[in-house]
C-alpha cells in the first residue's frame, strides 16, 4: 500500500473515533441530527455506488429503506436483533435482485419512472396486506435499543458502505460499471456481462439501503407505510448525491451533510413551503452543478492553474 | 485445414428489409479478407452478426468449431473475436489508458492492476499512440481515436479481428501509416476481416475479398479477380454497357 493510502486510513480512523465518541457530548436533539446525517450519508453513498457510474437514476431508495424498517417491525419480537438485521438486509437484496432482473434492461427515463412506480407498488401492497390480513395499519416496534446504539450502528454501516464504495471504485467491477455508463455496446464487446454487473451492484446498494431503514426503525416506535415509504427520502438521496458528485467517493457524503442540515432548518422554519423549496433546490442543483460540487471545484482548480501557467 | 470462421446461410431481417440474405463464406486462420460492397449492402450488419451486436434471424456462425450465432456479445468477445466500430466509440469518461485496460480486464485471460497498465502501454505503443498519463480519451484527434480503438481491440488478444472502415476518413499520410499497422498485424498471425471502401488499402492488405450487394454475396475470391468481376463492377457502377 502507498503512503497516501495509509495516511488516508489513519485520518479516517481518527475521524471515526471522534464520531463514535460524540454521543456522550451531545444532547438528544443534536444526536438526532447526527443520526439523520449518518442515515443520508449511507443512503446517498449506496445510491451513488450504482447510479453514479451507470447513470441509472433510481427513485426506489425508500422502497428498500422501508422494507428494511418493516422487516424489523414484523420480526423484531421473534428473532434476536442481529438476526433481524440480517433478514432485513436479505429482504432488500432479494427484492433488488428480482426487480433488477426485470428492469435493468430499461434505459433512461423508463428506469426512473419504473423505480418510482415500484416504491408506490410496494407501499400499496404493504398497506393492502396490513389492512386486509393483519387488520391494523400501523405496527409498534418495542426493542431495547438506545438512540446511542442506533447512532453507532449507522456509523458502522456508513464506514462499511464507504469502504465498499472505495473497493468498488478500484476493482474491475467498478471499471465495468463506468464502461457500461459510457457505452453499453463497447462494454459488451469488451467481454463485460452487463446484466450481471448491474444486478450485482444494484443488489449490494439496495441491501445497504434496507439495513439503513432497519437500523433506524426502533427510533420511530410506531411505523406505518406512509412514514417509512415516504418518497421524499428517495428524492433527498438523489439530490444529495448529485450535489456532492455521484462519481466521486466523498461526493455523496459532502452533499448529504449540508443538505440534511439545510432541510432540517427549512422544515422547522417553513413547514408549509418546504416541498416547493425542495423542488426549486433540486432544479437549481441539476442546472448549476450537473456533475456535483467536487467535479466543479476540480474544474475550477484546473482552470486557475492553467491561467497561472499562461501568465 | 478447417476454417477459423464459417458463416453459413446467415440471414438477418429488420422488419421487411433483409439486410443480410443467405450469406455464406469462411475465413482460414491467418487470412486478411476484405468485405466489400456498395453502401447499404449489409457489410456492417454482417460484422454485427458475427460480433453478437445483433442476433441472426437464421443461419449458422461457427467460430473455431463452436457455434456462436446468437450468443451475447460479451461471450463472443471472450472466445476471441474483437472489433472496431465504423463510428469510433471511445469511452469518454475514461482515460486513454483505461480505455485499453477495459479490454484487458474483461478478456478471457484477464489482466488487472499494474500488469494491465503496463500491457495497455505496450498496445498503445504498438499502434503508435503516445499519451501523457491521465489524458482523457475525448481529447484525442480523429486518427488517434482510431488508433485507440485498434489498441483496445488488439488488447483483447483476439484470434479474429473485425475492422469496420477503420481506414476511412484518414488523410494520405495517415492512411499509409494505417496500412503499415495492419500489415504488421499479419506477422502476428491474427485473422482479419475488414470492411473497407478505400481501394488502395484493399489492394495492399487483402489477398481475398468477399463482395456483397443488397444483402447477398455476389463474389468471393482473390482480390484482383474479384474487382474485375462483371457483377461487382455492375454493383458499384451500374450497368457497364447501358
Summarize the structure.
Chain A has 311 residues and is mostly helical. Chain A is built from 14 helices and two strands, in the order αααααβααααβααααα.
Give a topology summary.
The complex is a heterodimer of chains A (311) and B (242).
Chain A: H1 3-21, H2 28-54, H3 61-75, H4 81-103, H5 109-134, E1 139-140, H6 147-170, H7 172-182, H8 184-189, H9 194-220, E2 222-223, H10 225-228, H11 231-244, H12 251-269, H13 274-288, H14 292-310
Helix pairs in contact in A: 2-6, 2-9, 2-11, 2-12, 3-4, 3-5, 3-9, 4-9, 6-7, 6-9, 11-12, 11-14
Chain B: E1 5-14, E2 17-27, E3 32-36, H1 43-51, E4 58-63, E5 66-67, H2 73-78, E6 81-83, H3 96-105, H4 114-126, H5 142-155, E7 160-164, H6 172-187, E8 191-195, H7 199-205, E9 208-213, E10 216-222, H8 223-228, H9 230-237
Parallel strand pairs in B: 3-8, 3-9, 6-7, 7-8
Antiparallel strand pairs in B: 1-2, 1-4, 4-5, 9-10
Helix pairs in contact in B: 3-4, 3-5, 4-5
Q: Can you offer a commentary on this structure?
A:
- The complex is a heterodimer of chains A (311) and B (242).
- With 311 residues, chain A is mostly helical.
- Chain A is 80% helix and 1% strand.
- Chain A is built from 14 helices and 2 strands.
- The radius of gyration of chain A is 20 Å and the shape is globular.
- The mean pLDDT of chain A is 89.
- With 242 residues, chain B is α/β, with parallel strands linked by helices.
- Chain B folds into 2 domains: 1-80 and 158-242, 3-Layer(aba) Sandwich (Rossmann fold), CATH 3.40.50.300; 90-156, no CATH class.
- Chain B is 37% helix and 25% strand.
- Chain B has a 6-stranded mixed β-sheet, sandwiched between helices. Chain B has a 4-stranded antiparallel β-sheet with strand order 2-1-4-5, covered by helices on one side.
- In chain B, helix 6 links the parallel strand 7 and strand 8 (191-195).
- At the A-B interface, helix 7 and helix 8 of A face helix 2 and helix 3 of B.
Amino acid at each position: 500500500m502507498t503512503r497516501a493510502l495509509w495516511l488516508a486510513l489513519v485520518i479516517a480512523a481518527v475521524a471515526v473515533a471522534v464520531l463514535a465518541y460524540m454521543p456522550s457530548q451531545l444532547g438528544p436533539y443534536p444526536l438526532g441530527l447526527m443520526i439523520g446525517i449518518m442515515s443520508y450519508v449511507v443512503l446517498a453513498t449506496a445510491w451513488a455506488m450504482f447510479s453514479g457510474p451507470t447513470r441509472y437514476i433510481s427513485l426506489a431508495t425508500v422502497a428498500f429503506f422501508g422494507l428494511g424498517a418493516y422487516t424489523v417491525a414484523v420480526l423484531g419480537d421473534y428473532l434476536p436483533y442481529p438476526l433481524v438485521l440480517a433478514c432485513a438486509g436479505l429482504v432488500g437484496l432479494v427484492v433488488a435482485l428480482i426487480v433488477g432482473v426485470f428492469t435493468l434492461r430499461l434505459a433512461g427515463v423508463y428506469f426512473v419512472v419504473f423505480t418510482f412506480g415500484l416504491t408506490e407498488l410496494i407501499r400499496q401492497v404493504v398497506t393492502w396486506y396490513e389492512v386486509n390480513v393483519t387488520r391494523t395499519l400501523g405496527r409498534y416496534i418495542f426493542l431495547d435499543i438506545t438512540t446511542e446504539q442506533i447512532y453507532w450502528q449507522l456509523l458502522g454501516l456508513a464506514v462499511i458502505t464507504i469502504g465498499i464504495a472505495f473497493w468498488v471504485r478500484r476493482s474491475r467491477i467498478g471499471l465495468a460499471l463506468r464502461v457500461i455508463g459510457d457505452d453499453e455496446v463497447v462494454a459488451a464487446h469488451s467481454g463485460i456481462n452487463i446484466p450481471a454487473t448491474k444486478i450485482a451492484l444494484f443488489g449490494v446498494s439496495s441491501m445497504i439501503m434496507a439495513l439503513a431503514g432497519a437500523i433506524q426503525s426502533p427510533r420511530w416506535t410506531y411505523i406505518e407505510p406512509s412514514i417509512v415509504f415516504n418518497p421524499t427520502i428517495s428524492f433527498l438521496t438523489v439530490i444529495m448525491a448529485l450535489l456532492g458528485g455521484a462519481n466521486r467517493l466523498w461526493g455523496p457524503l459532502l452533499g448529504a451533510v449540508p443538505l440534511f442540515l439545510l432541510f432540517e432548518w427549512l422544515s422547522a422554519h417553513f413547514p408549509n413551503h418546504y416541498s416547493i423549496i425542495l423542488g426549486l433546490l433540486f432544479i437549481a442543483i441539476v442546472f448549476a452543478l450537473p456533475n456535483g460540487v467536487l467535479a466543479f471545484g476540480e474544474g475550477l482548480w484546473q482552470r486557475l492553474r492553467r491561467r497561472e501557467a499562461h501568465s | 485445414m478447417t476454417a477459423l470462421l464459417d458463416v453459413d446461410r446467415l440471414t438477418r431481417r429488420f422488419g421487411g428489409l433483409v439486410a443480410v440474405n443467405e450469406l455464406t463464406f469462411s475465413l482460414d486462420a491467418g487470412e486478411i479478407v476484405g468485405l466489400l460492397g456498395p453502401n447499404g449492402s449489409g457489410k456492417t450488419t454482417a460484422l454485427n452478426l458475427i460480433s453478437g451486436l445483433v442476433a441472426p434471424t437464421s443461419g449458422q456462425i461457427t467460430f473455431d468449431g463452436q457455434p456462436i450465432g446468437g450468443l451475447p456479445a460479451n461471450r463472443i468477445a471472450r472466445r476471441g473475436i474483437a472489433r472496431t466500430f465504423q463510428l469510433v466509440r471511445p469511452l469518454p469518461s475514461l482515460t486513454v489508458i483505461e480505455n485499453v485496460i477495459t479490454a484487458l480486464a474483461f478478456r478471457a485471460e484477464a489482466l488487472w492492476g499494474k500488469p494491465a497498465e503496463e500491457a495497455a502501454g505496450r498496445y498503445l505503443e504498438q499502434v503508435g499512440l503516445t499519451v501523457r498519463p491521465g489524458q482523457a480519451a475525448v481529447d484525442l484527434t480523429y486518427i488517434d481515436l482510431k488508433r485507440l480503438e485498434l489498441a483496445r481491440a488488439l488488447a483483447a488478444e483476439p484470434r479474429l479481428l473485425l475492422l469496420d472502415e477503420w481506414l476511412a476518413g484518414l488523410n494520405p499520410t495517415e492512411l499509409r501509416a494505417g496500412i503499415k499497422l495492419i500489415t504488421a498485424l499479419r506477422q502476428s498471425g491474427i485473422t482479419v476481416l475488414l470492411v473497407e471502401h478505400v481501394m488502395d488499402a484493399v489492394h495492399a492488405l487483402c489477398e481475398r475479398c468477399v463482395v456483397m450487394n443488397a444483402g447477398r454475396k455476389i463474389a468471393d475470391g482473390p482480390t484482383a479477380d474479384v474487382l474485375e468481376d462483371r457483377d461487382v463492377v455492375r454493383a458499384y457502377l451500374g450497368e457497364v454497357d447501358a
